[in-house]
Amino acid sequence: MAHVSVHREDIVLDSPMLVEGLPGVGLVGKIAADHLVETFDMAEYATVHCDGLPEIAVYQRGDQAVRPPVRLYVDEDHDLLVLQSDAPVSPSAADDFASCLTGWLDENDVTPLYMSGMPAQREETASIYGIATGSAGELLDETEIEAPPVDGAVTGPTGALLHIAERRDFDGLGLIVEADKQFPDPAASRVILRDGVSALAGVDIDTSALVEHAEEISEARADLAAQMQQADEESTSAKPLGMFQ
């Protein structure tokens, strides 16, 4: 049965914010989520067992423990949750996955912050834009995050999450950042953390490691980025509406 299994009942949260890290363009969400988990030494909080997730066993270097592919981590001090994903959501089951996860978020008074890369060639710092569902736009009004300059759509599983949030009038936030379409983009992840997540979640985030170890991070995530590029329909992305015409 599709559900989210919490195994840290000892942790008490007060209307937390969730940072979603599903793989997508530039792996901006994935890199950002991994950075938050490591930087704040976040504890594993729950396992996501929603339909659409591959039934695979994940292991990590130097650790014999087997983990599920999608997990929630928690920082109790900051009322912050992070969705860390090591596998894409099947496009055929994205709606079921989004409904399952959104139901749990709603029941637990969690405000989700969804992240998507927008393919772009840039020479300067990546631009970041914000969108919202329900009444979450009030949170964007308190920041300097601008609205997108062109019509567009968020695709993939993150698009499904935003779609169902809008359909249910559920408060949700979306951050769109310019990112490299072909390769992992730690610089774009740094922008989304520094100018987006930090402002919206009220958390100071040290992003220096994303600059100092950018090449190492890119190399470590190169295979996943290539897989996501080949399976474009599974990849979260923000695209101008003209690309669908």
String of helices and strands: EEHEEEEEHEEHEHEHHHHE
Binned, the helix content reads 25-40%
Report the biggest beta sheet as strand number plus sense, adding barrel if it closes: 8 strands, mixed
CATH top level? Alpha Beta
Q: Remind me, CATH topology?
A: Rossmann fold
User: Which architecture name does CATH use?
Assistant: 3-Layer(aba) Sandwich
Structural class: alpha/beta
Instruction: Trace the largest sheet across and list its strands.
Output: 1-3-6-7-2-8-11-9
Number of strands: 12
| Average pLDDT taken over every residue | 88
Strand content: 25-35%
DSSP summary: helix tally? 8
Estimate the global geometry from the Cα principal axes. Answer: globular
| Number of self-contained structural domains | 1
Radius of gyration: 16 Å
The end-to-end span amounts to 38 Å
Provide the fold topology.
Layout: E1 4-6, E2 17-21, H1 28-39, E3 43-48, E4 58-60, E5 63-67, E6 70-75, E7 80-85, H2 94-107, E8 111-119, E9 128-133, H3 137-141, E10 152-155, H4 156-167, E11 172-179, H5 186-201, H6 208-212, H7 214-220, H8 222-230, E12 237-240
Parallel strand pairs: 2-7, 2-8, 8-11
Antiparallel strand pairs: 1-3, 3-6, 4-5, 6-7, 9-11, 10-12
Helix pairs in contact: 1-5, 2-4
Structure description:
By secondary structure, this protein is α/β, with parallel strands linked by helices. The chain has one domain: 3-Layer(aba) Sandwich (Rossmann fold). The chain has eight helices and twelve strands. The strands form three sheets. The protein has an eight-stranded mixed beta sheet, with helices on both faces. Strand 4 and strand 5 form a beta hairpin.
